[in-house]
């Protein structure tokens, strides 16, 4: 229930409780709080049982934790019926980014895509040499005008 409370925070709460309620009243306050929490839990469990009874036998496996969106999505997507893992693993972002960069710069897409993919033997490692001067038009030469891009 209190998974995110650390030891220092717990000590601070205890010290504040002793200062506010005093050492004489603190045990009674703790009993009252635990009794209230117990009653709230009993009330929520009885409400869950009533809801399950009203829903009928079709929902006997219904869990209220499934109403949490994160739990619901995780439960239904863990089976990977849609093949999302294959789709996610099928994207090579380096290759696609190189293609986009080359398309913007006007380079040959197939040649640069082959250069952007990492080598199988690990010699190139898929790294870009930043010391080389980029290939392309001369600095004085203007790039071709594309009316569709503007």
TrEMBL record:
Q: Per its UniProt entry, which superkingdom is the organism in?
A: Bacteria
Compositional bias of kind Basic and acidic residues? 129-150
Q: Could you tell me the membrane topology recorded for this protein? A: Single-pass membrane protein
Using the UniProt record, give the first listed, main subcellular location: membrane
One short Pfam name that applies is TatA_B_E
The record ties this protein, via Gene3D superfamilies, to: 1.20.5.3310
Q: Where is this region: Disordered?
A: 109-150
Q: Where in the cell is it found?
A: Cell membrane; Membrane
User: Which residue stretches does the UniProt record annotate as biased composition, category Low complexity?
Assistant: 111-122
Provide any one GO MF term from the record: protein transmembrane transporter activity
Q: Does the keyword Protease apply?
A: no
* GO cellular component term of the entry, any: TAT protein transport complex
GO BP terms in the entry: protein transport by the Tat complex
> Does the record carry Transit peptide as a key word?
no
Q: What does this protein do?
A: Part of the twin-arginine translocation (Tat) system that transports large folded proteins containing a characteristic twin-arginine motif in their signal peptide across membranes. Together with TatC, TatB is part of a receptor directly interacting with Tat signal peptides. TatB may form an oligomeric binding site that transiently accommodates folded Tat precursor proteins before their translocation.
Q: Which NCBIfam families match?
A: PRK01371.1-1 (NF002374), PRK01371.1-4 (NF002377)
This protein is called: Sec-independent protein translocase protein TatB
Organism field:
Streptomyces mangrovisoli
């Amino acid at each position: 229930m209190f998974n995110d409370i650390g030891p220092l925070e717990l000590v601070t709460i205890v010290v504040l409780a002793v200062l506010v309620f005093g050492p004489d009243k603190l045990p009674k306050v703790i009993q009252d709080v635990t009794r209230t929490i117990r009653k709230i839990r009993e009330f929520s469990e009885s409400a869950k049982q009533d809801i399950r009874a009203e829903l009928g036998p079709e929902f006997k496996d219904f869990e209220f934790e499934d109403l949490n969106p994160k739990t619901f999505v995780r439960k239904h997507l863990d089976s990977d019926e849609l093949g999302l893992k294959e789709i996610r693993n099928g994207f090579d972002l380096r290759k696609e980014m190189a293609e986009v960069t080359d398309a913007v710069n006007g380079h040959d897409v197939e040649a640069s895509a082959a250069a952007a993919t990492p080598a199988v033997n690990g010699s190139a490692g898929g790294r870009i040499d930043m010391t080389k001067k980029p290939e392309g038009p001369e600095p004085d030469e203007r790039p071709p005008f594309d009316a569709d891009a503007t």
